[in-house]
Design goal:
alpha/beta; Rossmann fold; 7 strands
Amino acid sequence: MTESMYDRTRILVGDDGIEKIRRARVIVCGCGAVGGYVIEGLVRAGIGKLRVIDKDVFSESNLNRQVLCTTETVGRIKSEVACERARLINPDIDIEGIDEYISADSVDMILEGDWDILVDAIDTIGNKAVIDKAALDRGLPVYASMGAAMHFDPSAVRIATLKKTNTCPLASQLRKQMRDVDTSDMTCVYSTEPVTVKTEKRDEHGKGVLGSLPTVPAIFGMTLASLVIRRITGC
């Protein structure tokens, strides 16, 4: 890729920062509403190596909020689409897509290799706890999205370690799941906006369908990407 891709980023982080970004190796769990924007931000910053994980395909209901979902990608594997888009932006990127559920059975495979940071952009509480704990146990810093759905107010988005989060029901559940884990190197993006809209709609598995705008998940994702870039460069 032409060096001009990095011109605007270089003004902020310098040549040394660009080189650190190029050498960085990041795992992103989840390629949906939040994860798609994490991937977008990291790829456009020039991240050197990515592993993206998601066991799902795009559906028409994803069109309202998922940057990787278009009418052409509906029905396609999310991790595969993420890799294709990343290479269209930066052909030099080393990116691997894994079409796999994140669980206790797959966590060793997902974390295999030499990595710098894990980004958790999944919304299933048990699986979040599994991957976050495993990453922290391996000494990987974790940057995690809490609940981005059911929110309107971008000014309520906050950043804190897991133990210092508040208001967010998902963060509360995760704290209970990980109360015996050292989460001091786990940075969360969450919202302090109380959830006032209730949902009675259920999907085919009986899981509640949560309302979501395109805006707040995008802010969550780009905030996570920014935090990762700042960690990598030291800026």
